[in-house]
């Protein structure tokens, strides 16, 4: 696990055609604020300690503290249903001493929104938040993956979402 920032370059064939593609609006894009509100609530009070949002395919993968060895996958129609949150009981994560609080989660999701919508060619495909260790995972349309602690993420926001910044990111073996 990286201490600050790990970038892994993805499939060269995907990178070769990067500028021949454009983001296509997904179900999650259409309901982005609502979906982010649901994710905030899951992380705040429903026992979720790790959430991965697959923006492009509109699926949500969740890890719950009371069943940490199994992840659960939910599709857009489930997540966006009015009663989705009702199926989960209230559950505190205080005993796990989370690194991230509600304010951090809201700020991270706001940046995920910016990274998803600000460019039609280079955009966030999926993002994950782990409350316990404070790590953020992101995969972009260029098939590059980033694993970064939340403090470094906020310090280096200008490095994400611009084509010129992508050239200055650390190599797969390096940390930011």
Using brief descriptors, characterize the structure shown:
30% helix; 176 residues; seven-stranded antiparallel beta sheet; alpha+beta
Largest sheet, strands/sense/barrel:
7 strands, antiparallel
Alpha-beta classification: alpha+beta
Q: Give the helix proportion (percent range).
A: 25-40%
Count of individual helical segments = 7
Percent of residues in beta strands:
15-25%
Oligomer state equals single chain
Please tally the β strands and state the result: 7
Unreliably modeled segments: 162-176
Order of helices and strands: EHHHEEEHHEEEHH
Instruction: Give the rounded overall mean pLDDT.
Output: 84
**Widest β-sheet, arrangement of strands:** 1-7-6-5-2-3-4
* Separation, N- and C-terminal Cα atoms: 14 Å
Radius of gyration based on Cα positions: 16 Å
Shape: globular
């Amino acid at each position: 696990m990286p201490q600050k920032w790990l970038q892994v370059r993805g499939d060269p064939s995907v990178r070769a055609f990067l500028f021949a593609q454009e983001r296509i609006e997904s179900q999650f894009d259409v309901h982005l604020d609502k979906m982010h509100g649901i994710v905030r609530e899951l992380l705040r009070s429903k026992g979720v300690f790790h959430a991965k949002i697959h923006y492009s395919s509109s699926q949500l993968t969740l890890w719950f503290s009371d069943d940490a060895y199994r992840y659960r996958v939910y599709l857009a129609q489930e997540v966006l249903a009015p009663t989705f949150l009702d199926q989960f009981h209230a559950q505190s994560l205080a005993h796990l001493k989370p690194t991230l609080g509600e304010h951090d989660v809201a700020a991270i999701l706001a940046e995920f929104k910016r990274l998803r919508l600000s460019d039609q060619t280079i955009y966030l495909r999926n993002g994950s938040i782990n409350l316990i260790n404070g790590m953020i995972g992101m995969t972009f349309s260029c098939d590059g993956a980033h694993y970064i602690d939340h403090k470094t993420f906020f310090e280096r926001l200008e490095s994400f979402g611009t084509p010129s910044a992508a050239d200055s990111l650390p190599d797969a073996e390096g940390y930011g």
